[in-house]
Prior knowledge:
Elements: E1 3-8, H1 12-22, E2 27-33, H2 37-45, H3 54-58, E3 65-68, H4 75-84, E4 88-92, H5 99-112, E5 116-119, H6 126-137, E6 143-151, H7 170-185, E7 191-199, E8 209-216, E9 221-227, E10 237-241, E11 244-248, E12 255-260, E13 271-273, E14 276-278, E15 289-294, H8 302-312, H9 322-341, E16 345-346
Amino acid sequence: MKKRLVVIGYGGMGGWHTRNALTSDVVELAGTYDIKEERQQAARDNGIYAYDSFEAVLNDPTVDLVTIAVPNDVHEELVIKSLEAGKHVICEKPVTIGSESLKRMIAASERTGKYFTVHQNRRWDVDYLAMQKIVDSGEIGEIVNVESRIHGSRGIPSDWRGQKEYGGGMLYDWGIHTMDQMLLLFKGHKITHLYCTADNITNKEVDDGFKLHLYFDNGAEGYVEVGTLNFISMPRFYMRGLSGSALITDWTQKTKVVHCKAWHESDVVPVQTAAGLTKTMAPRDEITTNSYEIERPASDVHDFYRNFCATIDGKATQIVTHEQMLRDMLVIEAAFESIEKKQVIFFEQPL
Ligand SMILES: NC(=O)c1ccc[n+]([C@@H]2O[C@H](COP(=O)([O-])OP(=O)(O)OC[C@H]3O[C@@H](n4cnc5c(N)ncnc54)[C@H](O)[C@@H]3O)[C@@H](O)[C@H]2O)c1
C-alpha cells in the first residue's frame, strides 16, 4: 500500500517533492503545509490539500511520512516533532546545520523507532553514477584523484541561502551533495585531513563558493569546488587512475575515457611548442592508449522514495544511512573550521 506523504514547506523543493509524489508508485500525496499563506494558496491552486497547521499534519493519523523542505535552520525542530508524533521523516539536505543538532535528530529516530533519512537525491545524478561505474569497474586502475566541480555564474541566490542564520552558503547547499558523492567514490577509505577555502565575492555573510581538498588514508585526493562567479565552467568531473583518465565536461555529456594499455613507448616524437620542445608532455597515440566514450547511465529519481518506503516495510535497508549523514556533517564542519583558521585540519581518528 502507498505511504501517505505530507510535504512541509511548499517552496522550490517542496514543489519538486509534490510533483514527484503525484507520479510515485510508493507514496500518495496527502497534502502540504507552508508557514506562508501565499504558498498555502499556491498549493490549493494546484489542487493540493493544504493543512491548516503543522500540528494538524502531526495529528492526522492517516499520514505515514513527512518530507521537510524548509530553510535549513528549522530542520531539527520539525524533524524531531514529526518523529515524536510517530511519522517517518525525510529531511532535505544538508539535513541540519551542525553535527550536535544531527545527533539529536538521530537520537529521536532511535527513541521513537521511526525511520529518518536525508534527501541525497544527487546520488542519482547520471554524471556521478558514470564516475562511480568507472571506479567500480576498475577499468582505469586504482583511483589517484577525483576533481568534482559545479560552476554557475549567478552568485548566491538572494533568498535565505544568502543569510547565515538560516544555514545559507554554498557548503551547505551544493557542498553537501558534491562532498557526499566524493565520499562514495572513495568508499572504504577514511579522510586523514582536509583543507578548505571559501569565496565571499557576491556575498560577505556566507560562502558563495569554496574549494575543498580531502586527503584519504590510501594517499588519494578528492577535490570539490563550487563556484557561483564562473562564466566559463570547468569540467564537471575529472578522474585519474593508475591506468587511465576519465572526464565529464558537463552533466549533459557522456564520459570520455582514455585507458593506458602500455606504459612505455619507444621513439616518442617530441612536440614543438611556441618556444620549445617537449617529449615529457607529448600526447599519446593509439599505440599505447584506447580512447572511448561511455553512455550516460540510466537513473530514476523515484528510487529514493522507493528505498525509504521499502525500508519502512522491512524489505530494504536505508540507502542514505545515519552514519553517512553524520560523516558528511562532520566533514562540512571541519571545512568551516579550516576556512576560519586558514589551516589544514587533521583528524586524530581518520573520518
Ligand atoms: N535536494 C535538493 O536538490 C535541493 C534543492 C534545493 C533545495 N533543497 C533544500 O530544500 C530546503 C528548502 O529549500 P527551497 O529551495 O525549497 O527553499 P524555498 O525558500 O523555495 O522554500 C522554503 C519554503 O518553506 C517555507 N517555510 C519556512 N519555514 C517554515 C516552517 N516553519 N513551516 C512550514 N513552512 C516553512 C517557506 O515559506 C517557503 O515556502 C532546504 O533545506 C534546501 O537546502 C534541496
